[in-house]
Amino acid sequence: MTERRRYLIWGMFLALVMVLSACAGGDIEEGGDDGGDTEGGEAIQVAAVWTGEEQASFEAVLDAFTEETGIDATYKSTGDDVGAFLGTQIEGGNPPDVAMLPQPGLLRDLAADGSLKEVGEEAAQGLEDNYAPVWTELGSQDGTLYGVYFKAASKSTWWYNTSVFEQAGVEAPSDWDEMLETAQTVNSSGTPWVSMGGADGWTLTDWFENIYVRTAGPEMYDQLANHEIPWTDESVITALETFGELVGDESNLAGGTSGALQTDFTTSVTQVFSDPPEAATVYEGDFVAGVITGETGAEAGTDFDFFDFPSIDGSEPAAISGGDVAVALTDSESAQELLTFLTTPEAAQAWAERGGFISPNESMDTAVYPDDNTRQIAEALLSAEVIRFDMSDLQPAEFGGTVGKGLFLRFQDFLKNPDDPEAIAKALEEDAAAAFKE
Amino acid sequence: MAATAAEVRTNVGTKTKVKVKPPPGGARKWVAVAFLIPALVLLGAIVIYPTVDTIVQSFQNDDRTATVGLQNYETVVKRDSTLAAIKNNAIWVLTAPAIITGLGLIFAILTERVRYSTAIKIIVFMPMAISFLATGVIWRVMYDDSTELGFINAGIRGATNMVGAGAGPYPTAEALPDAPLQKAEGGAVVTKDAFEAGDVAHLGLVGLTEADLPEEAVQAAEPQAGQGLGVVVWRDFTPGGGEPGVVDQGELGMPGATVEVLNADGQVVTSTTTGADGSAVIEDLEGGGPFKTRLAASNFDQGFTGIEWLGSALVTPAIIGAFSWMWAGFAVVVIGAGLAALPRDVLEAARVDGANEWQTFRHVTLPLLAPVLGVVFVTLIINVLKLFDIVFVMAPGSVQDEANVIALDMYKTSFTAFRYGLGSAIAVLLFLLVIPVMIMNIRRFRREG
User: Degrees (nearest 5) of the Cα angle A32, A36, A40?
Assistant: First the structure.
């Protein structure tokens, strides 16, 4: 943006402020440098990554907001790379009023830049009234609340083929040891226990995170995520050994170890529902349901179902989660009103009844979810005592998000040879140290 | 350039007999510059500026706030993934161009001698019309390690089945860990207990579904041993597990299993095959026993289970294969054109002088064809050095490090790990590696020009 254009915009802006405050008849508000509060409030722009069906659902939420407050909210799609989109908009001095951030790391980065506005009191109150405290923590950075979690995702769901379970005569296990026994029985019935998408490293990081948060606990999890403890820590070894109890026995894995390493995520899901099934179960997040229904003929409830990732040694119910967090990027009061609205059960319901959505809002009646699976996932997430975000998303990309490097590579190495957790931990620490150096 | 442009103008002028006064020197120059400006601006904006900027960035840190000297280059030469990439690129450069040029030469010479050479050339050339990405996807399926999906592995399995090395009847079956059975050498399963005539040996197996049993399988039954030794081989599993080692209601026999009877020395006395209910009786036993029974290894023969083409050991050769499939057509067409342009009189002279086919090829065709082969070879070297997409698509994530090439390493470092400084240093390294080949190419063009 050229200097001249910037002056022009500021000029117009100031003129607008003067005219509006004249209209308001001297009713000057606190921090009123963002225009007056006429009836209904100024229109706002909301940016999010959603397109297609999801966009339509979110627009339904915005319509409900407009109906409630009289404020016009227009939707703007960010494209796939939200970070790059917002970065250029902020640089250009014209960010959207509210953005829905799909990655927790982005909230952290933008808050550190000073690009985010603190969440106002009303919205904070809404969070307190309707959400578990953990969501306030997750939306905060250094003690300041910046975001309102609106859409949640669970990465602690373990999906299974019901007919394989029936033929093996087993029930969904509720803790890790029971899971290992069930695995033996299912293996004996002739179908390997679990299908693992080991060609994609990210599936393995999700496995590890679910195990680690259960064996080491949430505090250690946070410390490891921030690299405050090294990857050579005893807790990491314990978690790897626990993981090794499952993957160390090749007969648990569809196609054995080499098969698991050659299977990508989508195949790891579809092969559980092929004929004959290549495996009884597949672990990944709630989005697996979409892959099953989209790629195979299986139907929820009758052909497939899920259980929560089992507790390990009596660990409390925990969930690795993700979600979309709403943040304000301008001082607009309408933006704060939208954040407040998003904490209400009405906002959550507007999308929940359309499907494809899980709300972290405890005040919303789970009966509005259109199907049982979604309802169960939502209920599991709401009842989890411990909620943590995907650790790999919080790492520097070179360590946590690059194919053939860092976490992805080392967990694949571990899957290849689960006998030496110490060596894996050492390699992880070396990678982490290199990535965190800057 | 300026002079050439002017010459063309005057030439055109004289030819059409229109008298054009040559413009004064200054103006000619400006006209030339004016014509060049668009090209220069484009070239500057999309080639020269990015090149210079990349070189500058390679000496800076990732967010370009400080100059770090040679640090990025130091990291590059120390990093495992870059070293692997350089090694793989070396393998590629040494093998792929040679293989493809060789294949192209053979195809070109062979097709020249058949009638429908154009049709054959079109077929061989066709893969060139497919993008790298699509080639990668196609070959990833071709190379799939499952014998049901992967074309190549399915072919090999078909062949092994034909020569009789196929799978046994129960390749996935195994004994429960706590059953009175143990694994013997070669994958056979042998009873721990010894039996006398009149006993029934229980050989319960798990690890196979009911669908894995042949259709004739019925409820398993213990045979009436009488004077002989009875055996029963069955799928020892009912929903929930059932009682191990006991023939429960609903458990099916495993017909067609080969059971061997061993004497006290471990020698095979006799053998039999189970019936539809999984049972068999061995009547005429020599010696009094005790005997052990053994399920022969052939029952569990896996057959051919598929080569892991895209595993860490074979991934680079496998991708070179796919790449060759794609580029062989290019080589055939170019070399074919070169062959067609060879002076016939020289070939005939050689034949008249009594040279045989091989001698003609070796001492006449090949030297005359050398410039064409050179073009093909160098073009391929350049293509191989900048290789990216086919590896990116074909190598599964778990072996992408083993299959790494420089351009892929650069992409991943810059655009998924966001280490722009380091990525730029890798880009400069790639640039330096390409320069000698470029110089070679330009020199040859000059010579030929």
Answer: 130
Specify the fold of B73-144+309-406. Answer: MetI-like fold (1.10.3720)
Give the integer Cα–Cα distance in Å for B257 and B220: 13
Domain spanning B181-300, CATH architecture = Sandwich (2.60)
Sequence ranges of the domains in chain A? 43-154+322-388, 157-319+390-436
What count of CB pairs under 8 Å joins A to B?
100
CB within 8 A of A362, min separation 6: which ones? A130, A131, A132, A382
In angstroms, rounded to a whole number, what is the distance separating the alpha carbons of residues A170 and A152? Answer: 31
Say which DSSP state A399 is in.
H
* Nearest-angstrom CA–CA distance, A61 and A100: 13
Q: Helix, strand, or coil here: B182?
A: strand
Q: What integer is the mean pLDDT of A105-127?
A: 89
Which residues are bridge partners to B280 per DSSP? B231
- Cβ contact (<8 Å) for A397 and B308? no
CB A89 within 8 A of CB A40: no
Contact at 8 Å (CB) between B422 and B72? Answer: yes
Q: What is the rounded distance in angstroms from the CA atom of residue A50 to the CA atom of residue A324?
A: 10
Q: Within 13 A of A338's CA, how many CA atoms are on the CB side?
A: 36
B412 contacts A402? CB cut-off 8 A: yes
pLDDT in tens, A224-261: 998 999 999 999 999 999 999 999 999 999 989 988 99
Residues 6+ away with beta carbon under 8 Å from B373: B101, B105, B335, B338
Round to whole Å and give the CA distance between B239 and B210. Answer: 11
Q: What is the CATH number of domain A43-154+322-388?
A: 3.40.190.10
Set of chain A residues whose Cβ sits within 8 Å of the Cβ of B306: none
A397 and B417 in contact by Cβ < 8 A?
A: yes
Chain B residues in contact with A249 by the CB 8 A cut-off are none
Residues of chain A contacting residue B404, judged by C-beta atoms under 8 Å apart: 404
Candidates A87, A88, A146; CA nearest to A119 is A146
How confident is residue A423, by pLDDT bands cut at 50, 70 and 90? very high
- Three-state secondary structure call for residue B247: coil
Check CB contact under 8 Å for A262 and B401. no
B-interface mutation test, from A181, A189, A410, most B Cβ less than 10 A away: A189
For A11-46, write each residue's pLDDT tens digit: 555 555 555 544 444 333 333 334 334 456 789 999
**What is Dmax (Cα atoms) for chain A?**
81
Å between B246 CA and nearest CA of chain A: 15
Q: Token pair for residue A183?
A: 């695995």
For B398, which of A190, A255, A261 is closest by C-beta distance? A261
- The DSSP bridge pattern shows strands A318-328 and A147-154 to be antiparallel
Which DSSP string do the residues of A132-197 spell out, in sequence order?
-HHHHHHTEETTEE-EEEEEEEES-EEEEEHHHHHHHT----SBHHHHHHHHHHHHHTTS-SEE--
pTM over 0.80: no
Q: Residues of B with CB below 8 A from A167's CB?
A: 209-210, 239
| Separation between Cα atoms, residue A177 and residue A162, nearest integer Å | 21
d(CA A296, CA A304): 11
User: 3-state DSSP call for residue A302?
Assistant: coil
Asked if this assembly's ipTM is beyond 0.95, the reply is no
Residues of B in contact with A250 (CB under 8 A): none
Of A190, A264, A403, the CB nearest to B412: A403
The span from the CA of A377 to the CA of A20, in Å, is 48
The per-residue pLDDT for range B132-162, each reduced to its tens digit, is 899 999 999 999 888 888 899 999 988 888 8
CATH number for the domain whose boundaries are A157-319+390-436: 3.40.190.10
